[in-house]
Amino acid sequence: xxxxxxxxxxxxxxxxxxxxxxxxxxxxxxxxxxxxxxxxxxxxxxxxxxxxxxxxxxxxxxxxxxxxxxxxxxxxxxxxxxxxxxxxxxxxxxxxxxxxxxxxxxxxxxxxxxxxxxxxxxxxxxxxxxxxxxxxxxxxxxxxxxxxxxxxxxxxxxxxxxxxxxxxxxxxxxxxxxxxxxxxxxxxxxxxxxxxxxxxxxxxxxxxxxxxxxxxxxxxxxxxxxxxxxxxxxxxxxxxxxxxxxxxxxxxxxxxxxxxxxxxxxxxxxxxxxxxxxxxxxxxxxxxxxxxxxxxxxxxxxxxxxxxxxxxxxxxxxxxxxxxxxxxxxxxxxxxxxxxxxxxxxxxxxxxxxxxxxxxxxxxxxxxxxxxxxxxxxxxxxxxxxxxxxxxxxxxxxxxxxxxxxxxxxxxxxxxxxxx
Length: 420
Description:
elongated, alpha+beta, 2 domains, six-stranded mixed β-sheet, 13 helices, 17% strand, 52% helix
């Protein structure tokens, strides 16, 4: 340890490096590239992971959707091509038969999927907007950011079928004056007055709504558009520990039994499994992290081996010098430590430069992708990963330095002094 802080030790190291600058530089590139690749790929994987989490931060990760379509097989006296209509009563059956389901939100809409939008007016201002009929439970699956002073639909709105609504921020801009508070104001939805109780800020996810959509109580929607017990689709969320793919299969199976559909009919119900997509994204991110680890370690190892080879050549070239040191009283441990310290120094220097350049690259990529549509943000590498890579380089640097160090120790002073 004392030799590590000895000025003479470092003077000899720098003299050795200065004699072979190009060779030393080219050798250090191997370690530099290895750690740079590791930092770059790990950061890219984390950035992609963060990007998708931000893109869908308002929606539960185990979310799935299901809707009725047309049968493709005859069953129980029904012909092929029968249209399946989901019903409000299906909700209780799904809860009872599929315990992995945490939340089921029935939803209706006007102005999406081919239906005509609602005409919404306020004074002389008007526009066509999509109107959703929802239950309060919907925001447990897809969180809605409501501006201060407002709220989302509540249970009392459902029970009393109140004529209240939550409008989008763009709807507010188009129907209300700039300095006017919309909360408590009224708009007409298809000639029916509704009181505004909240303004929602658009966030991706959930039902993939826009910033102009209007939400009203499901029971009010039913009365306004005479939909009865019909449901357009179910937005559902499974528990975190549930197999969301199996839950999707179970949901379709239960719906087939409710609506007298052939158990083998795969076309009667449509579905979209957001949870499965999340799983694939997380798997891809983990795969990239693992790939970066394998490629980075392999490249670092190759670079460290290169450093070891350079030190072997250096020991060969310094045979006479090492012989003189031994003749003057240098112990084998001092000679060995000299070579190991040099190996460790070159390895760590290369790695630290690689980490710095990799971090700057990731910062540049983050700045370039800010504000874009691509789901990518904050590509960073966890500190434990960086510390782990440095420890790996220390271990490899010491181990690979032992080879030329042992070669140096094995040189007999008398033989070294005879060498020309």
